[in-house]
Description:
By secondary structure, this protein is an all-alpha fold. It is built from 15 helices and no strands.
Amino acid sequence: MKKTVSTYLFIFIFSLCAYTQDEEQSAEVFLEEYTDEFQESFFEALKQKGIQNYDRAIKLFLECKNLDPLNSVVDYELAKAYFLDKKYIQAQEFAIEALNTKPTDFWYLESLVNILEKQGSSLDNFQLSIPFQELELRENLAVIYFKKRKYQDALKVLEGLGNTKFATNLTLKINDSLHQDTEKTNTVITKKTPEEEDPTTQYKNKIEELLATNNFKQMESISEEALDLYPLQPYFYFAYGTALNRSSKSAKAVEVLESAIDYLLDDDVLANKIYKELSRAYTAIGNATKAQEYLNKVKPGL
């Protein structure tokens, strides 16, 4: 999972050349590498996808593909647009192409898994079509199955990873989840680390300080670091997405914040924060319908 969130779709072309770690590069400098035609087509495609005009979005993304055939971000966006348009075979084709270009990308893999599941298939049938032996790809796959509560599938993947720290930690989380599902109650007594020694609490306290002072640039860096270390913590998704949104990276923020929902269990207070930030992000990218939808999810009095 290391670096997967930080390499997620930098959607407004801030890192359109394959999700490198150069997020700090300014948009102005980066956009110079692309033609006006490419930029206009890509931005318009995102807009059309946001208002659910998928045919038009696909046509525009294909124009981008012709201008830059090796761009994995365009392949990923095509996969998502075809998927939303329920054209799963085409979605599968572009999702595989994107993943082969960047096999360690968490979001590319998750997109492919979702597409295959919609067709009643699984990644097991496509291991020869992708670089499945890539360690980080298999780690990402285990996390994806864990998110989907497909615990046995996740454990099967983890068996092939050996006794790594990642495999050990995720296996413990899966076993705990299985126990809760079986017993219908959380009876596992865990030894709590003192708050002052708990690194997740330290990260949360630091993030809250940065949020209170509107220091979103540093908040983005700290929350991204925390998310790399603790990829199953919904609060860090919220923090990273909020920092992105307040830094005018609202489209990417939407993707991150919606991922936070997958990890929520019974935390209505955090859920409210995520829904409110999603409403702000969708408003920023001009999707009033989705903005209102998430605002309606907010529970009053919390």
